[in-house]
């Protein structure tokens, strides 16, 4: 196990920021920590990095406790924080090279790694620019470069893609997947459910410092009763017909708005057939049909009763 957190409790006076939190991050995974603002993500990140003391529990990195002088462990960790953490007085090249030199003493090796990282993130055209001249997307790519230049085997990312333009977003997402393919373990903190769904192989959902669900995307989706969401274009529907649809076997909810009928069905066979049979029997004309499997949004909604985006 790369990271093992057991029964972690962290309080700020009366606020319980982490409430007996458990987490296991396996080698080679992109493990997403998903939760709304205030759910404890930053506190957890800081505890794992040894930046914050905690009240109870334990954190092991490669089966060892992180101490001040655990240089062997620290060398293998790369961190990309959400806030800006580069030097304004250094150029893009100098920044990356500086962060590399914190881990690597051989000057030639520093040069090689810096060049390689610049190329990896597509930053070749911006090496002489100072951070103030960089767009938000380029700045995020620079921060990312500074965090990975020493080739860590564990990478901790806090909202690494947030606030970037589509080009930088794609570049960063591709780099994250490429690093995973090369064997890097990644712990990915975010409140963006789509990013987590797209990139992460395992997910921990947090709410109020507690783990509310943990597993692969498929495991999380299997935890909830929602099987599929069926959307149909229906030109007119009576309230009494909508009520009958809501009472069809396996249907857990149905709404009709703007000529669109949205039916949520629990897991089971023939949900769509049953619905279409009813519409045909009632001679209710319909157009397009879209069926969707549950998303992580649905998982969060069913477990907590509210949307993550709220
Ligand atoms: N230094 C602090 N003093 C007091 N309370 C704090 C402190 N830092 C965090 N908290 C509280 O602890 C809880 C968890 O906060 P934390 O910042 O870890 O959550 P988060 O998920 O990272 O949120 P965000 O995405 O907004 O940073 C919140 O209730 C927050 O108000």
Salient structural properties:
Alpha-Beta Plaits, binds adenosine-5'-triphosphate, six-stranded mixed beta sheet, 310 residues, ATP-binding, Rossmann fold, 35% helix, ABC_transporter-like_ATP-bd, alpha/beta, 2 domains
Describe the structure.
InterPro entries: ABC_transporter-like_ATP-bd, P-loop_NTPase. Residues 3-233 form the ABC transporter domain. It holds the Pfam family ABC_tran. There is one protein chain. The protein has 310 residues and is an alpha/beta fold. The chain is built from 11 helices and 13 strands. The protein has helices at residues 41-48, 71-75, 92-101, 107-120, 136-148, 166-181, 193-199, 217-223, 239-246, 271-281, 296-304; strands at residues 3-12, 15-25, 30-34, 56-61, 77-80, 154-158, 185-190, 202-207, 210-215, 226-234, 251-257, 260-266, 286-292. The strands form 3 sheets. A 6-stranded mixed β-sheet has the order 5-6-7-3-8-9, with helices on both faces. A 4-stranded antiparallel β-sheet has the order 11-12-10-13, with helices on both faces. The longest helix has 16 residues, at 166-181. It starts with a strand and ends in a 6-residue tail after the last helix. The relative contact order is 0.14. The model has no long low-confidence stretch (mean pLDDT 93).
């Amino acid at each position: 196990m790369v990271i093992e957190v057991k029964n972690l409790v962290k309080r700020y006076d009366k606020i319980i920021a982490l409430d007996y939190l458990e987490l296991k991050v396996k080698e080679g995974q992109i493990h997403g920590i998903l939760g709304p603002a205030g759910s404890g993500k930053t506190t957890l990140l800081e505890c794992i990095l040894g930046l914050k003391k905690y009240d109870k529990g334990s954190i092991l990195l490669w089966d060892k406790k992180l101490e001040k002088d655990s240089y062997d462990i620290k060398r293998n960790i790369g961190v990309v924080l959400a806030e800006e953490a580069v030097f304004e007085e250094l150029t893009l090249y100098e920044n990356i090279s500086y962060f590399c030199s914190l881990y690597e003493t051989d000057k030639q090796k520093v040069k090689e790694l810096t060049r390689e990282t610049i190329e990896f993130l597509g930053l070749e055209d911006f090496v002489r620019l100072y951070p103030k001249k960089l767009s938000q997307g380029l700045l995020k790519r620079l921060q990312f470069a500074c965090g990975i230049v020493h080739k860590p085997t564990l990478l901790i990312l806090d909202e690494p893609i947030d606030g970037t333009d589509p080009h930088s977003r794609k570049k960063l997402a591709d780099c994250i997947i490429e690093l995973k393919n090369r064997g890097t373990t990644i712990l990915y903190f975010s409140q963006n459910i789509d990013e987590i769904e797209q990139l992460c192989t395992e997910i921990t959902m947090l709410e109020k410092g507690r783990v509310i669900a943990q597993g692969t995307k498929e495991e999380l989706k299997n935890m909830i009763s929602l099987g599929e969401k069926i959307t149909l274009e229906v030109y007119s529907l009576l309230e009494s017909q909508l009520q009958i649809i809501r009472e069809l076997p396996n249907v857990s909810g149905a709404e009709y708005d703007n000529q669109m009928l949205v039916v949520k069905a629990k897991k089971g066979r023939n949900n769509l057939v049953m619905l279409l049979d009813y519409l045909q029997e009632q001679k209710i004309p319909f157009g397009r049909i879209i069926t969707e499997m549950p998303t992580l949004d649905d998982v969060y909604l069913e477990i907590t009763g509210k949307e993550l985006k709220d």
